[in-house]
């Protein structure tokens, strides 16, 4: 289902005005998604380059990147980016979805497909968020002296909430898919 263009005259009930506001909000959200999609991984890389690796549960001390071998730094950086990159990609897909809504394409198969990709990427980010702390700690301590190596398994609410959010978005996408099919069927009848 497509909304009327924003430059059309509003109906007597003001529906055109509401549709125009939805389109404008969607375009603003698209810009925010693009900004966050870039800022998240850049922030992780900059903080790692500055030697600021966040404290991880189970790790007895802060990771000193300067004391690590280059490939250990790579493992730590990859572990820190693993949960962030899928979320950044999901934000880029969300940007395209918001732009489609900004054009008036709400109950379309394009929007539904975008929501499903967002759900998959967010779920992937949640899974990576569960595994990444263990990889970071193992990578940082693998060359430590015997007795100094650490294995930390961390389960926090952040990645679990991300997994739930991915499932919710997928469910919404499934409902919207049914609505899009109904809208197409109704458009063919009329």
From TrEMBL:
Transmembrane segments: 32-53, 73-94, 118-145, 151-173
Pfam families, per the entry: DUF2975
Highest taxon listed in the record's lineage: Bacteria
InterPro entries in the record: DUF2975
Keywords, comma-separated and alphabetical: Membrane, Transmembrane, Transmembrane helix
Keyword Cell inner membrane: no
Signal peptide coordinates: none
Protein's recorded name: DUF2975 domain-containing protein
Lineage: Bacteria, Pseudomonadati, Pseudomonadota, Alphaproteobacteria, Geminicoccales
């Amino acid at each position: 289902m497509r909304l009327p263009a924003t430059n059309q005259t509003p109906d007597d009930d003001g529906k055109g005005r509401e549709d125009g506001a939805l389109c404008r909000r969607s375009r603003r959200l698209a810009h925010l998604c693009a900004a966050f999609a870039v800022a998240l991984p850049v922030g992780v890389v900059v903080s790692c380059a500055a030697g600021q690796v966040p404290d991880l549960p189970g790790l007895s001390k802060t990771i000193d990147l300067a004391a690590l071998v280059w490939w250990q730094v790579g493992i730590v950086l990859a572990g820190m980016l693993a949960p962030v990159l899928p979320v950044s990609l999901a934000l880029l897909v969300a940007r395209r979805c918001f732009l489609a809504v900004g054009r008036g394409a709400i109950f379309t198969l394009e929007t539904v497909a975008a929501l499903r990709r967002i759900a998959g990427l967010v779920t992937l980010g949640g899974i990576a968020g569960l595994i990444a702390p263990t990889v970071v700690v193992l990578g940082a301590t693998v060359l430590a002296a015997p007795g100094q190596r650490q294995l930390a398994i961390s389960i926090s609410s952040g990645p679990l909430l991300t997994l739930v959010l991915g499932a919710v978005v997928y469910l919404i996408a499934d409902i919207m898919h049914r609505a899009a099919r109904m809208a197409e069927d109704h458009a063919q009848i009329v």
